[in-house]
Design goal:
It catalyses: [protein]-peptidylproline (omega=180) = [protein]-peptidylproline (omega=0). It comes from Suillus fuscotomentosus. Keywords: Isomerase, Rotamase. Belongs to the PpiC/parvulin rotamase family. PIN4 subfamily. By secondary structure, the protein is of the alpha+beta class. The chain is built from 6 helices and 4 strands. The protein is globular.
């Protein structure tokens, strides 16, 4: 019996267990930022096209869906101050109007040449086509 007890104690040394759990935690944290980023992000690097008229926003959305670059369409169609390809830069949660923010944080990051777009988002500013370039 004494041998069995010492044998079971050898199977569970506290140093190895502690070391494993520390490594696991570090792995979980880095994975959490990557995979769980869609839920946990507090800022998004966002671009948009703002049009006062629904028809113009729809036209811009169609141009992008036909394969035109988001930044080029934004320069041509967007009616706001973000003329630099529609870029608003890094926006913190809480600094955007509700519907715009909800759409921005729901999007998966993409690039201007192959953007993942929001459907048209109506705010008091007009109609937005939104894409997100990054999350953190």
């Amino acid at each position: 019996m004494g041998k069995k007890q010492s044998g079971s104690a050898e199977k569970k040394p506290t140093e190895k267990k502690g070391g494993n759990s520390k490594n696991t935690n570090k792995g979980d944290q880095s994975e959490g930022k990557g995979k769980g980023g869609l839920k946990a992000a507090t800022t998004v690097n966002v671009r948009h096209i703002l049009c006062e008229k629904h028809s113009k926003a729809t036209e811009a959305l169609q141009k992008i869906q036909e394969g035109q670059r988001f930044d080029k369409v934004a320069q041509e169609y967007s009616e706001d101050k973000a003329k630099a390809g529609g870029s608003l830069g890094w926006m913190v949660r809480g600094s955007m109007v509700g519907a715009f923010q909800d759409a921005a944080f729901a999007l998966t990051p993409s690039t201007v040449d192959k953007p993942i777009l929001s459907p048209l988002v109506k705010t008091n500013f007009g109609y937005h086509v939104i894409m997100v370039e990054g999350r953190r």
